[in-house]
Structures are given as C-alpha cells and as structure tokens.
Amino acid sequence: MQRTKSNSALLAKRNGENFERLIEMTCAYYSKMGVAYIQKTPEPMKPIKVINRAKRLFQAVYTMKAQPDFTGTLKNGKSVVFEAKHTDGTNIPFDRINDQQQEDLALHNHLGAMTFILISFNMKHFYAVPYKDWMQFKEHSGKKSVNQTDLVDYQISTEKGYLNILEGLG
After folding, report:
1. pTM tops 0.90, yes or no
2. Which has the closest alpha carbon to 153: 129, 124, 131, 119?
C-alpha cells in the first residue's frame, strides 16, 4: 500500500511540474507574440550550507511563505498576477492558496491587476478563475474545495500546445 501512495505522490509531483512547464511555455509564447511578459516568481530562499561550490549546489531554507506563482505585464500595461494549482484528483481545496498568496492576490486585485487562480485537473482540463470569484466560492459555497462542475464557466482552451490563460479575463 505504501508503494502505491508513493507512486501516486511522484506522479502528482511530475504532473505539477509539467503544468508549470506548460505555463512557462505559454508565457514565452505570449512574450514572443508581444502580448504579455509574464515570469515565474522565484521562491525567496536563504542558502544555509554549501554542498558543492563548483556545481553551485547548496542547501537552503525558505525565508517567507510563497508568493503567487507568476507575475507580469500585458501589452496594454495592465499587471497580471496568478497562482497555479494542479491536481490529479477531483477537487482543489481552498486552503491550497496560503494566507500570504491570498493577501498578495487581494492587494494586486485592489490595485487593478488581473488576478486569478490557474487550475489544472489531470493535465487535461484547465480553468482560469478570477481571484474575486475564487474568494466568493470560498466564502459562500459552504464547501472546502471546488471541482470541475463548479468551474465550468472558467474553463480555458488550448491552442497550438499553449494554454489560453488570458481568455475571458478582461
């Protein structure tokens, strides 16, 4: 039983990494097309031990809770900030967005940025949920998570191997 759990955790990790790569490829495509410049937000870390100086390997600790995963600017000058979440399951718990990420998304949203949660279910179905709608679901649904049925109005398409992450998000 332990082996199965370990294998499913490894598969989920791989799929999460694949989702992130798909987003980064999409962002590179948007940049090439002159539509937007969006980058992955680096995790704030502090090195604590050098493992191999020549190979630039070190051990580090996070210095603060994670910020939203991606930030950038659209061609019209508007900022874009979003958090990406993947699941191989049937729902995304609201607590997958930590307090710091919620605070950052709320602040950017208040200042007029395009803010949203980008969700992948099984690397087959993708959704871009505006932050304010995500918070409405969280505060008023009476549930601890959302599923694909809840998000049907936020489904985004793929084209030429890229996610249309900006469609429907004006």
Report:
1. no
2. 129
Mean pLDDT, rounded, for 129-138: 96
80, containing H or E segment: strand 79-87
pLDDT at 125 over 90: yes
CA distances from 16 to 34, 63, 112 (A): 27, 23, 29
CA distance 155 to 62: 33
Residues 6+ apart with CB under 8 A from 62: 43, 44, 45, 46
pLDDT at position 42 over 60: yes
Provide the 8-state DSSP code for 94.
G
Take residue 91 and report the two structure tokens written for it: 């729902």
Write down how long the chain is: 170
Cα-flanking dihedrals φ and ψ of residue 19, to 5°? Answer: -60, -45
84 burial type by CB count under 10 A (0-12 exposed, 13-18 middle, 19+ buried): buried
- Please say whether the beta carbons of 160 and 146 come within 8 A: no
Q: On the CB side of 37, how many CA atoms lie within 13 Å of its CA?
A: 4
Measured torsion, CA atoms of residues 121, 87, 146, 2, in degrees rounded to the nearest 10: 130
In which band, very low, low, confident or very high, does the pLDDT at 63 lie, cut at 50, 70 and 90? low
- Cβ atoms of 69 and 84 closer than 8 Å: yes
